[in-house]
Amino acid sequence: MGILLMLVHLSCLVLVIRSGNLNLITQALEAVGCKMQVIPDPTMVHFHLPNNLSVRVHREYEKFIQELTSYFPHEKEGILKFFGECWKIFNALNSLELKSLEEPLYLFGQFFQKPVECLTLAYYLPQNAGDIARKYIKDPQLLSYIDVECFLVSTVNALQTPMINASMVLCDRHFEGINYPIGGVGGIAKSLAKGLVDKGSEILYKANVTNIILDENGKAVGVRLSDGREFFAKTVISNATRWDTFGKLLKGEVIPKEEENFQNVYVKAPSFLSIHMGIKAEVLPPDTDCHHFVLEDDWTKLETSYGSLFLSIPTVLDSSLAPEGRHILHIFTVSSMEDWEGIGKEEYEAKKQFVADEIICRLEKKLFPGLKSSIDFMEVGTPKTHRRYLARVDGTYGPMPRKTPKGLLGMPFNTTGVNGLYCVGDSCFPGQGVIAVAFSGVMCAHRVAADIGLEKKSPVMDTMLLRLLGWLRTLA
């Protein structure tokens, strides 16, 4: 076996079927010979915010801007300028062939082909969305709205969200629109797995990795499972968080300096509480959107536990997912592991029911009267659930900056301080979000391919570039 890839979790809210180089999920499916049928989603999310601010993010960009400016007509110019900068970044990204930024031959080749686009991205690399928004927008409520948009991207406000990450999401949803996979988002993982097996890969399920094996020279050469089995390879790739990779899978080993720097710049974001329900269809109005975000009366509660609620109702788009006359309702909200530690089983179950009842009551008042009496089935997952089944330390959603970051400068790439070991996922550049995580996978594949001789590389230029990137991260 040449490469070991430790897969912990795959999660996607949407599938994008369109043209452009940022369409990475579809490209991955096509690479393994798979294609999925999709349903266009006319509204990416419907925001229900303080002061009766109700904004739909329409598939059509002009329609969305028209709705947003109807609430803030005095800020129309600022809105257009802020989103205009987002489009400048998105278009630059979408014009490039996306591969590893740690591979100098690719990097310099892209620069010589498209210098303006590369310089555009370099300019925005150390900048955050909140700072750009404040250049053009003064209305406090509109700035709070931008915070909410960024919170969906990164679980932090706009001042802590890298501008490049925000731009990828805020524009991608309008670039030929968002589409939902028929049969549910679980079909993405199933299709990828089938395609990989069909192409000759082997996937082991219920294979819990407990250790990364190092040889006498400190090189990663394999993994050990909880049942004692060992697998060896030239390359080991971990999509566990960097905290899990270097705190658990390499427990007892000296943590590389770069990983110490990462943990000084980033902390674990909280986890979340999720509620899955089966409900009677008549409780939902006929024009109900698929996705909703609810923050009732206080902007300051955006990032607090249970302060804001995200809802997904996939059966609005694909009724085949539930029995006739029923809908699936998925609710999730920020919740910290500390809220659920140190309590017994009975208290734990009672607390789950209590928190769920409070959330359902809020949704009854804001959106769906009679929701509680329409419930046929309900399951509640806590940070403990996510820690157990997603194998993520404290069930964390991912990394978030300790303080206001310098854009993406502090985010590590795929290579690590351990020879033969690579990381991929949301604790690697460019961070959280479906597109960002898919991008990290593409970058990692290219860097590994160069290192094992499947792509061209220059050892001298490699060394120089990696040192430069390491120095840039110290500026964060």
TrEMBL record:
Transmembrane segments: none annotated. This is prolycopene isomerase. GO terms for cellular component: chloroplast membrane. Residues 1-19 form the signal peptide. It comes from the Eukaryota. The keyword Cell cycle does not apply. Its cofactor is FAD; NAD(+); NADP(+). GO terms for molecular function: carotenoid isomerase activity; oxidoreductase activity. Gene3D superfamilies: 3.90.660.50, FAD/NAD(P)-binding domain. Belongs to the carotenoid/retinoid oxidoreductase family. CrtISO subfamily. Keywords: Carotenoid biosynthesis, Chloroplast, FAD, Flavoprotein, Isomerase, Membrane, NAD, NADP, Plastid, Signal, Transit peptide. It is a peripheral membrane protein. Pathway: Carotenoid biosynthesis; lycopene biosynthesis. Pfam families: Amino_oxidase. It comes from Arachis duranensis (Wild peanut). It catalyses: 7,7',9,9'-tetra-cis-lycopene = all-trans-lycopene. PANTHER family: PROLYCOPENE ISOMERASE, CHLOROPLASTIC, PTHR46313. InterPro entries: Amino_oxidase, CrtISO, CrtISO-like, FAD/NAD-bd_sf. Residues 23-349 form the Amine oxidase domain. Its EC number is 5.2.1.13. One of its GO terms (biological process) is carotenoid biosynthetic process. It is found in: Plastid, Chloroplast membrane.
